[in-house]
Write a structure and sequence with these properties.
Mean pLDDT: 88
Distance between the termini: 64 Å
Low-confidence stretches: 43-47
Number of domains: 2
Strand order of the largest sheet: 3-2-4-11-10-9-8-7-1-5-6
Number of strands: 11
Number of helices: 13
Strand content: 15-25%
Structural class: alpha/beta
Helix content: 40-55%
């Protein structure tokens, strides 16, 4: 198999990977991927497509889809898959008449039909036959943004365990930056054995995360989260939270049968607009390229005379870095954090939530490793807290939470 054939094969495998990952979590997206695989491979073209007179149109699109999948600029094999899904969802959200039939299957716009119904395959291929060229064109320039607002728990939980009272909050690969507001949201950890633990300041329940493993008891003051003195993020392709179009772009990146995630996203934007009207610091996301800009971003974001610790975090960010760039990023953060803590006599927490790298194993397909690095008085510690679903719908904790708790020292 030549290089192009190998790349094409890998991209088709990415459809299969996404379909398997989504099957029990997003039946709609699993079905879309499965039907796309069947059609692209052309070894079981959907019978209904032939009967509806669509075979010729789909055959002419097939070569362009293959070329789209094989483009060398994709950062990873899932990139083209996610782009196609997001643009199709955007067309559904916008009420595009060419995909009108699909609205019945997208719960984010009120659809109630199941993709397991026999009519879904034909509805999908009809829509693709109508919008295929435009779908590919728009997907080529679409920017996938990490907008899963449950991930704010990644920094809020370790901050609560360490009972951090105030902090400067920074995010690498921030994209939208809504996770910089985590202490104003509501998270409930529901362990298999034990009582639920709630964090955040929102009144109503928002994110409920079933989990296994021991969850530490937290004092009430700590569960509210620290006072955040600034909120800064950096991303190679930042979005403008103050642009009304941004909310629609991020909504399209949500899987179309998960209206609860769409509601959480809208709550995040409402919170941003509310905090802009108050004296509290609002999130600011700037354009930076990593790893080149790592130390520059950290130096310029933080005040010259700090009076509180730093909380730095990243979520599903390093998946877009090759191994060389990842090592450079980690080296630059370690050097900066070590020097900063010694100079100012203040701790530094780096909370991380990243998928397994090649050669690493995870307890479940697609899950992310949750770990933290801490610096205090010149001492560096790395602690693994556990693993979780990338959308934070489930988590498995190990002994790391207790180890992190021990860093607080005597009361």
């Amino acid at each position: 198999m030549n290089q192009d054939g190998t790349r094409h094969h890998e991209r088709l495998l990415s459809f299969t990977t996404m379909a398997n990952f989504a099957r029990g979590y997003s039946p709609l997206y699993a079905a879309i991927m499965q039907h796309m695989i069947a059609w692209i491979q052309d070894d079981q073209v959907i019978d209904e497509a032939h009967n509806a007179g669509l075979t010729g149109r789909l055959a002419s699109l097939r070569s362009r889809v293959m070329a789209f999948l094989d483009r060398p600029e994709w950062t990873n094999d899932l990139d083209p898959v996610l782009r196609l899904a997001a643009v199709l969802h955007r067309m559904v959200i916008d009420g595009d008449e060419r995909v009108e039939g699909l609205r019945n299957f997208y719960r984010t716009v009120g659809g109630k039909r199941s993709p397991s119904e026999p009519g879904f395959a034909l509805t999908l291929v009809r829509a693709f036959a109508r919008v295929g060229d435009e779908l590919l064109e728009r997907a080529g320039s679409w920017v996938i943004q990490s907008n899963e607002t449950a991930r704010g728990l990644i920094w809020l939980l370790p901050a609560a365990v360490l009972q951090i009272e105030a902090a400067y909050l920074l995010e690498l690969g921030a994209s939208a930056g809504l996770n910089l507001y985590a202490e104003h949201r509501s998270y409930t950890l529901e362990p298999a054995d034990g009582s639920p633990v709630s964090l955040g300041r929102a009144g109503a329940k928002q994110f409920v995360i079933p989990c296994t493993g021991a969850v530490p008891e937290l004092v009430p003051a700590a569960t509210a989260g620290p006072e955040i003195l600034l909120r800064r993020g950096a991303d190679a392709s930042p979005v403008d939270l103050d642009n009304p179009e941004t909310e629609r772009i991020l909504a399209a990146c949500i899987w179309g049968d998960q209206p609860h995630r769409l509601q959480r996203l809208r709550e995040g934007f409402a919170l941003h607009r509310e905090l802009l009207k108050t004296a509290g610091p609002a999130a600011k996301v700037e354009r930076r390229v990593f790893p080149e800009d790592t130390q520059t971003f950290l130096a310029e974001a933080l005040p010259a005379a700090p009076r509180a610790p730093v909380i730095l975090f990243d979520t599903y960010f390093t998946a877009y870095l090759n191994d060389v760039d990842l090592r450079a990023l980690e080296r630059d953060v370690r050097e900066f954090a070590h020097t900063w803590t010694l100079r100012h006599g203040l701790p530094w927490l780096w909370a991380r939530f990243e998928p397994a790298r090649a050669g690493e194993s995870s307890p479940h397909t697609g899950w992310c490793r949750w770990f933290v690095d801490t610096w205090s008085r010149g001492r560096h510690r790395r602690i693994e807290l556990g693993w979780a679903h990338p959308h934070l719908v489930r988590a498995e904790f190990g002994p790391g939470l207790a180890e992190l708790e021990s860093l607080r020292g005597p009361e």
